[in-house]
Amino acid sequence: MKLLRRLYRIGLEAFYTFLADDGWAIASHIALSTLMALFPFLIVLTSLAGFFGSKDLADQAADLMLQVWPEEVASRLSSEIHDVVTTTRGDALTVGAVFALYFASNGVESLRIALNRAYAVTEQRAWYWLRLESIGYTLIAAVTALALAFLIVLGPLILETTRHYVPLMVESNERFLTIVRYGTAVPAMIVALFLLHAWLPAGRRSFMQILPGIVFTMAASLVSSMAFGEYLARFANNYVTMYAGLASVVIALVFLYFIAVIFIFGGELNAAIMKARARRAESKSAPSPGRGATPA
User: Does the CA dihedral 63-64-67-69 come out positive or negative?
Assistant: First the structure.
């Protein structure tokens, strides 16, 4: 019971701090910035794929990104995303690609703002270094997505080779590739969350300090995705009726908003736990009443 009361107090403190830090408004900023950064990021992804000589990798990477989205959300964006990543591009070093890279990095900047507020830290680095860092994170994400997509492209070859040595293996290619996609997308998300919490905001945090928020973000995101998918399966027509041709964009925006709220609360939860640990350490180090008093 004592542990439950402590967890309740920490969760309540994190929620109140979330409200004080304008968490709802920052989540809207993250959702809109992420959605606006999505297609410029795909343009960068396509340009890099063409630079490396395989345009199909961009399509595979986009499919990998959508694996962690609810099917009802991903299906409404898949055709537009497919059109972007399958367009022939030779502008890897052109001004257009540079602007796309800059706009794609805006999503990273919105996450930095949220985490700086959550951890109550003040940014001391120059703005241009922060922008270059965000661009670097964007490029790393693009290259990583292409590398993971390349592994998925090799999936059927790996399966056939395994069957040659293990004849009893009868897994279908489709099921095998589904397992591989989830097996690469989920760990990639976990690594990305660790990097974001540890390095993106000002200051540095240890592995154990950011672990609770990561676990919460992954678990809550999974539950939120399943719940939102079930909701859309029943009431998706409401969005079509209200927003007409913009329904797919609004659905994606609402989904990203929920994920942004969870992401911010994960940072607030880490900060609340860090404060609670600091208070406990301070109370243990403080002398008890009557101890150390000099006799009259």
Answer: negative
